[in-house]
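To: structure desk
From: M.T.
Subject: fold request, one chain
Message: Could you run this one when you get a chance? Sequence is below, nothing fancy, just the single chain.
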Amino acid sequence: MNLNYGLRLEQSQKLIMTPELRQAIKILQLSSVELTEYVNQMITENPLIDIEVKDDETFTHQEKTEPEIDWEDYFSEMRDMPEPRLPREVKSEFTFENMVTRGVSLHEYLFSQLGLLSLYEQELRVARYLIGNIDPSGYLAVSLEQAEKDLKASPVLIQKVLSIIQGFDPPGVGARCLKEGLLIQLKNKGINDPDLHSLVESHLECIASGKLSRVAQLMNVPIIRVQELADIIKSLNPKPGASFGGDAVRYIVPDVLVERIDNDYIILVNDNQVPHLTINKTYSSILKKNSNADESTRDFVENKLNQALWLIRSIEQRRTTIYQVAVTLVKMQRGFFDHGIKELKPLTLKQIAEAIGVHESTVSRATANKYVQTPHGIFEFKFFFNSGLNTDCGECASSESIKRALQEIVKNEESTRPFSDQKIADILQRRGISIARRTVTKYREELGIPNTGFRKRYL
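Reply: Done. Structure tokens follow.
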């Protein structure tokens, strides 16, 4: 093996991920709300970024007549600045959604009810302990024996306080199991049916699996009676505490507005809340040739100016890309915008990317976590990108349109004779949609539609 040193000249091509490119990619995939937060953060970090105020009469005559610096000549690399801004829809109203706070937790709600009662100190001590051991679903997560050991209190006192807590709102809170929770809710509604109590205590598993005929045989009652009792049980809440706490309410702000005017559609990029940025003239004047600033100050200002210009350019590029994607989307999904989900066609990111001349990953970032307001409601961008199946006419039907057709078939079926998955597949076949039974089962489960046994009614 011959090993030696040598010089060799090679030409290669590499992609270098600069900080500016990372920032542009990050800005592209931000929603309008996230972009507003990001821009506000950059304004606090970069003194050269100012919020542009239009038609502001507070500027002095000197500020208006002072010649501006031609930054395009100062920075030659910025000569490919984006085109002027697209028309914006200006809105200045205040939304009260900005004032929404978190909801009340289950424990806070129970303690507030406890504060309205006149209890002895020992009873309050037991009540606080029991409420503190109620899980997020509303069930008591500690046994009475363990509570007796921890509190060193009598079983009679603990049972008495637990009965008080089980009378709190929401009905069923403080139960030790599902059966007890359902019985508490029945008592709260004033339902004292012996058959219903027997059904809850002995046959809940059969009801959950849809074996109504088996329950009718065991209870020696007509199956229609069992179905009536099962309907009452299904109206109860198996998790009484689930409606409290949780994540805060998230309000969807559409990133693109599609409005129909006559037979045309107007597309607006909804970035009204994003501040219009400009360069601070006070700091930028340091870069003038007659400035007395030292070299380090000029370097700092020049660096911040580069960052500001790149931020403005990235925001404009994001807006242009989203606008192009939205325009192409409306063209390719014209049937949906005219007639609704039934006319939704299969579409991929690659098709949009080829139409506007960008990479598929750019379209993916431009549509990530963003919503479109259409004449038929607000939809996530990814809703329009879905697979499909071939029809007998040689066209394609999207999975969403097939799901909508499946929902209509189930909605219009006879409740006493619900369609099986194979029967639904046959109906779709007659409509020209080639679909397998297992695909129908998949779509039905995704829609949360129960199987034939659970949909069947005996009335």
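Reply (cont.): Strands lie at 49-51, 256-261, 264-269, 277-279, 371-374, 377-380, 388-390, 396-398. Let me know if you need anything else for the meeting.
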